[in-house]
Each structure stands twice: as C-alpha cells, then as structure tokens.
Amino acid sequence: MSSSVDWQWKIDEAIEIIRHRYDHIGSKTGAPFLAVIYEPEAHVAALARWRDRTQALRPDFALESLDVAEITSKSLQEIGTETVVELLNNPMPGSDPTAELARVWLQAIARAVREALRNARPGRPVAVLERLAALHPVTTPRALDAGSVGRRSCRSHRSRCPPDTRQSGARQELPLPG
Fold first, then answer.
1. How large a percentage of the chain has pLDDT more than 90?
2. Torsion of CA 77, 80, 82, 85, to 10 degrees
3. What pLDDT, on the 0 to 100 scale, is given for residue 147?
4. Nearest to 31 by CA among 155, 127, 114
5. How far is the CA of 105 from the CAs of 47, 140, 174, in angstroms?
6. Per residue in 109-149, pLDDT tens?
C-alpha cells in the first residue's frame, strides 16, 4: 500500500475499533488511546475522511474534538509570548524552561480533555486531539499518555485520550474511548 493512501485504511480501522471494541481499547497495550498518524501532505484529506467517517458513530458515541494548536497558543498568550521567549533564550540557572513549558501545555490539554468529556453530549465519550504537531519541539504526543492526560484522567472519565505521534509534520492523533 502506498504511503499516500496508507492512512485511509487506518481511519476506517479506527472507526471499526471504536464501534466494536470501545471497552477494550488499550487492554493489550496499556495505552488508553488509538492513534492515526499520516504524512503532513495528507492532513486536509485525512481530517475530512475522519470527520466523514465519524458521522456513522453518532449518536452512540459522543466525539469531542480538541485543537492542540489552539490550546497551546492560548497557554502562550496567558503566560505572555515575550516572557516565554525571554525565559527560553535566557534561562535562570538550574531551570529547564522547555520542560516547564511542556508541563504547562500538557496540563492545559488535560484540563481541556476533562472539560470536554465532562460536558460531552449523550453517548460513549471519545476525545479527539487534532494538530498534535503543535507540541513540537517542546514535547511530544507520547508525553500526553505519560503525563497529565494519561491513564488517570482518561480512565476516570471512561474515555480514551491522547494518542502518540512523532514530531515531524502535521500528524493527527485520534484518541479514542475507554
């Protein structure tokens, strides 16, 4: 299968897993999510296919989409972009401003996921994180599982959370139920 269409079957498979194996997502891997990773060139087409295919899951599933780029941007605005740039360029002795920014972003994403799931429409909740490439180069989507959006917050809401992707390109993470 060529990489230009490799992501298409992944989206279809993810939909089927949500539909038929919702309660078992992560039971073998320990990761409470599914991920669909694709090349940056496929972003628009992959997102359109995902949104089209997820319509078949309604009303049994309540999909809540969250834009990670928007969440991280809002966090930067709250702190002050100039402040962040200054701290990154001139860190205080013993500090790690990149790790601190990652912590702030991960906490903001965790809050957004919890809020979205708390206010979810009727149906089995599914958190969908879009534009995870926004985390690069500060952190990675893998940190979402290991960090504040990991198993605790996802399990407590019986939903699936953030998936994993690598840092290159505009890959889409489609976290799922649980």
1. 50
2. -80
3. 53
4. 155
5. 23, 11, 18
6. 999 999 998 888 899 999 999 888 889 899 888 888 765 55
